[in-house]
Design a protein that fits this description.
Blueprint lengths: L12 E3 L14 E3 H14 L15 H4 L6 H18 L3 E11 L4 E10 L5 E9 L3
Antiparallel strand pairs: 1-2, 3-4, 4-5
Amino acid sequence: MATKRKTPVRLYKDIDLDFKLNPVTHDIGLKTDVQAVKQSLKNLFMTQRGEKKFQPNYGSGIRALLFEPVDYLTGSIIEKEIEFMIKNYEPRVKVEGIAVSASTDTHEYDIRLDFFVVGVKEPQVYTTTLERLR
């Protein structure tokens, strides 16, 4: 009796926006499942509203907030922006918690997003640092 070989089911798939080549096929690499979702989150963080053609509300207003005073109030507004953008543009993510820490010395915000990817049992963490460019 032959046994069936289980192949992993890929829930989500996207091209690797770093454009790294697949070492075997020499095609553009792929991001799958959790890595594809994290790449999408990074794109959301980095896209300013009005920047994406034909979708003027896609993205966030975070970039403009980086030029406001670095304090608790601005950090809480950034947190609300993150909640809004995920709720409206990333349905694969179920947010468990968002932590925004302001660093007045370096004029930056450390972001930690705890979440679940729909269809994946393990909790995920996405971290990034937001800083204004001069």
